Structures are given as structure tokens and as C-alpha cells.
From TrEMBL:
Signal peptide: none
Keywords per UniProt: FAD, Flavoprotein, Oxidoreductase
A single GO molecular function term of this UniProt record: oxidoreductase activity
Pfam families to which the protein is assigned, alphabetical: FAD-oxidase_C, FAD_binding_4
Family (UniProt): Belongs to the FAD-binding oxidoreductase/transferase type 4 family.
Positions of the FAD-binding PCMH-type domain: 36-215
Taxon lineage: Bacteria, Pseudomonadati, Pseudomonadota, Betaproteobacteria, Chitinivorax
CC cofactor: FAD
Single GO biological process annotation from the record: respiratory electron transport chain
Top-level taxon: Bacteria
Name assigned to this protein: FAD/FMN-containing dehydrogenase
The organism of origin for this protein: Chitinivorax tropicus
Length: 461
């Protein structure tokens, strides 16, 4: 008896929760990368863990490739379905439950939108600190699968640091409940951390227990104009020892001009500078504000900074943040080719200088836009596509230069992906960050959890 995929899926997902129309396939078969053509066989919308488990067992039996789908805000092709896979959308698994005010934890289904989790924490008088520009569309399951970081890492760490429990469905259809919200658990391998950052290649994350923390008392934002790369690290080193920093971000004048062109925000001060830093700190009174102004004056005296502004209200702080957070959206029409790299903080200036030389040499006719979470060594490099150049030719030229970019990353013992994952775009370059022995062990781990290779095949490994 022959197997027919769509009828089998429709037996599992009633109420028209199996979609095969062209618009749905195109929408759910692609993430924010725009260099692939989506071609899934179907999109399914489970409502509960049991449905996910039944789907995985069916897929395991009939060798059906599955691609998990959250907010699809990734930039490495990790949620792309281009080979007839079945997309598993978690849009309808978005419950928040079991809030524990003593432990300060809440259980989230995989489809909970990041901003909703932040709002829930605020309603409880608490705070969920992992934050990024895609907060309004990214989902918890995808954030965990890529170990998302964002703009608050310098103080609060990565998504990994806030996951105290995890429920997953492995590639064989087994449900695992990992760590159960415990703070201490010294009973061998912590399998929870294998799934965090695994990009859906070991199994499907269906539920997470997330810890919350106290809300910061008050936040002030400063934007500073920095004429030289080395000055950025001098400012960072000075401020981190005297202010309670919650963010330390970097962007270039080229990036700022794209934001300003949209007309939604204004230049923070009259003068222009090659580089800018945005720093946010907890400001609990007059003392902190005075200290920040003293540090600013010192930075000006030392020549590290030539101009600056500090927020005087929450509205002004939000407007200053938009100078940094609106960059990705502002350059999106230019179809940028993105690299997301990480190195140790001390190595940022020499690395950027060396990389600037490479980019100027290899991309003389391309505009390159820099920004990033420089307080944790994470830089985003965006090469903008010229209007007259075909996408395939543009991508080909960018890929040719990747070897020089990643050679520099390897020389500085960095990572080819800081927070966007490996997915499809970085998979050929994994060896620049991981040794052959590490990759072999990773393949062995995948074989244990996903012996038939049905979980997000082709991604990461």
C-alpha cells in the first residue's frame, strides 16, 4: 500500500491545519534570508505536544523531512524549506502558564512571541531581559534553537542563561523533559544545553520554563560620537567599571544615514562621526547621572569622543535606541548579505581594522554597513546589493570573500556566527570555528537523537 503524505497529515491535523496553497508555502518556507527559493510540500499547525509527537513518529516512519518554524526572523537560512520538507509552524502553540512567583519562572510554549513574554513579566512586576529588534515577531522556540542574544547580553547574557527547563520531541518521537526548572542539578549531562542552539537538528522544542528577574530601576541612554575605532574600547573599558551597563552597542555613520533617510528619527547631534556607540545604564539617582557626565567629559578630554547626548526622558531614550535598532529594517530594501561574527572584546579594534582593509579591497564597488553588540564582541557586517547586480551574482561575489573574512575570524579565534546560527548560509564554513574532531562529535550527537536525519536536514551539519 503506497503512502500519501497530505492525507496522512490531514488525519493528524484536522480543522484545515494542513496548508498546501502557494502563498502559505512561500510565506512559511522562508526566513529573513532572501537567497533561497521556498519549496515545502506542506505546512502544518500543531496545537499541542501530542500532535507534534505524532507528526515526528509519522515522519520517522516514512522518512519525511521536518523544518521547524517560529517567527522566521533568522538570517542564516535555518528555517528555510526548499527541498519538499514539511514545515512545522508553532504559531498555534503560544500559551503562557504555570507562573511561579517564588521561583520567578513561567512555562512558555514554543510559539510564544518574545515581546509577549516581556509584557507578561512586566505585568508580574518582573523583567525578561533578552531583547532584540525582532521582539515583536520572533518566538521563544526559535530563540532557544539559535541561542539568541541581542542588545542586553553585556549584562544579562544569552537566551541560554534564562532557560531552566525544556521539553523537546526528539527525532525518534520521544518526549524529553529536561531539568524541570531546577537551579542546581548535578546528575550528569545537561541535555537541555544540547538542544539550546541546535537549530532544530536534534528535535523540536515544544515548551520551555523561563526564569524572570527584577526590573531595572531606571534606564538612561547615551549616544556618543567616536572618531577612532580604538576609542570605542577605551570608552567601554572606562564605563563598564563605573556604570551598571545594560547595553553597549556600536554603529557606523553609513548605518546611521540609512536610518535617517527613512525620516522616522533625527540625527542625535549636529556633528558627524565615523562611528557611534550607544550605551544604556541603570540610573537610580542623581549620582549615576553625574558620574555618566563626568565619564563623558573625560572621554572628550582624552579624544575618544567628540560629541554626545544623554536621554532626559523615556521617550528620548526610546528615540535614541531607534538609531541602532532601526538599522536592519532600514537596509532591508538593499537585500544585504549578512555576516554575524564574534571575537573577544579586546580584539575588536584590530580585527575591525584588518577586516575593513579586506572589505575595501574585495568590495570596492559595494557599500558595507557595520553595527553590532560590541560590548560582547559581536559584529554584524552587511554588504548591500547594488541595484543593477543580479542577486545570484551578488551572492556569488560575497561568498568568494567569505574565505578571507572567516580566515580573519579564525586568526582571532572567533566564531563565524555569534547569534544567528549556522543554518544553510554558514554550514559550508563551520570548519573555520569548529575542529574536525568537534564536528565529528556533533554528527555523532545528531545520530543519537535523530538517527534517520529528518530534523531540519542540511542545516548546521
Amino acid at each position: 500500500m503506497s503512502f500519501s503524505l497530505i492525507p496522512a497529515l490531514e488525519l493528524l491535523f484536522t480543522d484545515q491545519r494542513v496548508r498546501t496553497d502557494a502563498d502559505t508555502l512561500a510565506h512559511y518556507g522562508l526566513d529573513w534570508t532572501r537567497i533561497y527559493q521556498p519549496a515545502p510540500s506542506a505546512v502544518v499547525f500543531p496545537k499541542c505536544i501530542e500532535e507534534v509527537q505524532a507528526l515526528v513518529r509519522l515522519a520517522n516512519q516514512h522518512q519525511i523531512a521536518l523544518v521547524p518554524s517560529g517567527g522566521r526572523t533568522g538570517l542564516s537560512g535555518g528555517a528555510v524549506a526548499s527541498q519538499g520538507e514539511v514545515v512545522v509552524s508553532f504559531d498555534r502553540m503560544e500559551a503562557l502558564r504555570d507562573f511561579n512567583p517564588i521561583d520567578r519562572t513561567v512555562v512558555c510554549e514554543a510559539g510564544v512571541i518574545t515581546e509577549r513574554l516581556q509584557q507578561f513579566a512586566q505585568e508580574q512586576g518582573l523583567y525578561f531581559p533578552v531583547d532584540f529588534a525582532s521582539r515583536g515577531s520572533s518566538r521563544v522556540g526559535g530563540n532557544i534553537a539559535t541561542n539568541a542574544g541581542g542588545i542586553k547580553v553585556v549584562r544579562y547574557g544569552l537566551f541560554r542563561d534564562w532557560v531552566v527547563g525544556l521539553k523537546v520531541v526528539t527525532g525518534t518521537g520521544e518526549i524529553l523533559s529536561l531539568n524541570n526548572g531546577l537551579i542546581k542539578n548535578a546528575t550528569g549531562y545537561d541535555l537541555r544545553h544540547l538542544f539550546i542552539g541546535s537549530e532544530g537538528t536534534l528535535g523540536l522544542i515544544v515548551e520551555a520554563t523561563i526564569k524572570l528577574t527584577r526590573a531595572p530601576k531606571a534606564l538612561s541612554v547615551m549616544v556618543l560620537a567616536v572618531p577612532e575605532l580604538q576609542g570605542i574600547m577605551q570608552v567601554f573599558n572606562t564605563c563598564r567599571h563605573q556604570l551598571d551597563l545594560t547595553a553597549f552597542e556600536f554603529f557606523s555613520e553609513k548605518a546611521l544615514k540609512h536610518v535617517l533617510t527613512r525620516g522616522h528619527v533625527q540625527r542625535p547631534f549636529e556633528s558627524e562621526s565615523p562611528y557611534y556607540v550607544l550605551l544604556e545604564f541603570e540610573n537610580q539617582g542623581v549620582t549615576e547621572q553625574e558620574l555618566a557626565l563626568q565619564l563623558f567629559e573625560k572621554a572628550v578630554e582624552q579624544g575618544w569622543v567628540v560629541d554626545g547626548v544623554i536621554s532626559q526622558s523615556d521617550a528620548q531614550a526610546q528615540a535614541l535606541w531607534r538609531l541602532r535598532e532601526d538599522i536592519s529594517e532600514s537596509i532591508a530594501p538593499k537585500k544585504p548579505y549578512k555576516n554575524d561574527i564574534a571575537i573577544t572584546i579586546a580584539n575588536v579594534p584590530p580585527f575591525m581594522q584588518a577586516l575593513d582593509a579586506v572589505l575595501a579591497r574585495e568590495y570596492p564597488d559595494f557599500e558595507v554597513v557595520w553595527f553590532g553588540h560590541i560590548g560582547d564582541g559581536n559584529l554584524h557586517i552587511n554588504v548591500l546589493k547594488p541595484d543593477e547586480l543580479a542577486m545570484a551574482d551578488f551572492v556569488s561575489r560575497c561568498q568568494q570573500v567569505n574565505q578571507w573574512v572567516f580566515d580573519l575570524v579564525r586568526q582571532h579565534q572567533g566564531s563565524i556566527s555569534a547569534e544567528h546560527g549556522v543554518g544553510l548560509t554558514k554550514q559550508p564554513y563551520l570548519g573555520y570555528t569548529r575542529t574536525a574532531a568537534e564536528i565529528a562529535l556533533m554528527r555523532g550527537i545528531k545520530q543519537v537523537f535523530d538517527p534517520k536525519g529528518i530534523m531540519n536536514p542540511g542545516k548546521l551539519l
